[in-house]
Specification:
By secondary structure, the chain is α+β, with helices and mostly antiparallel strands. The chain is built from five helices and four strands, in the order H-H-E-E-H-H-H-E-E. Strands 2-1-3-4 form a four-stranded antiparallel beta sheet.
Length: 131
């Protein structure tokens, strides 16, 4: 029975059926000519200094941010909560005036970087205008 489930999951399954379905992240290959996108969350101080908010600085990891991207795009005011968390954990730091979700695209050709890198702001909130 277990072998039948494994075989069926391997042929027709997806991530939600793991461990009987393949875990696509490890069982498939990415297109070597498709860009790689890296997402980060940053805060800006009044002096224009960029402060990293992803990577555990505010209690969330990058994967957790990426899982919430659709929600953050729909409700950008939620980024203000990240600024509040940062201020609570870094009381002596300069206050943040803006929070942005930035996506960096690395262009690839045959699986190697071409050198072309572009940044784009997916969503942002100006904290000075927030209530």
């Amino acid at each position: 029975m277990v072998l039948a489930l494994l075989l069926g999951g391997t042929l027709w399954g997806n991530d939600s059926e793991f461990p009987f379905g393949p875990f696509r992240m490890y069982s498939t290959r990415a297109d070597p000519d498709r860009p790689v996108v890296s997402t980060r969350v940053v805060g800006l101080t009044a002096a224009g200094e960029e402060v990293r908010l992803s990577g555990g600085e505010v209690g969330l990891r990058r994967a957790e941010f990426e899982g919430q991207l659709p929600r953050l795009v729909d409700q950008p005011e939620l980024l203000g909560l990240l600024a509040d968390s940062y201020a609570g954990q870094h009381p002596d730091a300069d206050p943040l005036v803006e929070v942005r979700v930035v996506q960096r695209r690395y262009e690839l050709e045959d699986g190697r970087r071409t050198g072309e890198v572009t940044d784009s702001v997916l969503v942002g909130v100006d904290l000075e205008d927030a209530p």
